[in-house]
Amino acid sequence: MAQQRVLPQSKETLLQSYNKRLKDDVKSIMDNFTEIIKTAKIEDETQVSRATQSEQDNYEMHVRAANIVRAGESLMKLVSDLKQFLILNDFPSVNEAINQRNQQLRSLQEECDKKLIALRDEISIDLYELEEEYYSSRYK
Question: Which GO cellular component does the record give, naming just one (predicted)?
Answer without folding.
Answer: mediator complex
